[in-house]
């Protein structure tokens, strides 16, 4: 993931863990409880025995759907 400094930081493999990268819509829905981050995927080093599985799931709400903070706050104004 990309740190605020602009430097990319490796995310360690943790057995049994799930890593979720969210985008701006989820950040808005959660009123910044979860933060959207810039990320990249690199090939593992030669001979690395760790494996990871990747699953991409994208959400695009209906154009008329009202998007507002789930906690009822006014952190972000509702948008469509």
From TrEMBL:
Gene3D superfamilies documented for this protein: B-lactam Antibiotic, Isopenicillin N Synthase, Chain (2.60.120.330)
InterPro entries linked: IPNS-like_FE2OG_OXY, IPNS-like_sf
Pfam families documented for this protein: 2OG-FeII_Oxy
Protein name, UniProt field: Isopenicillin N synthase-like Fe(2+) 2OG dioxygenase domain-containing protein
Domain of life: Eukaryota
Residues in Isopenicillin N synthase-like Fe(2+) 2OG dioxygenase domain copies: 4-61
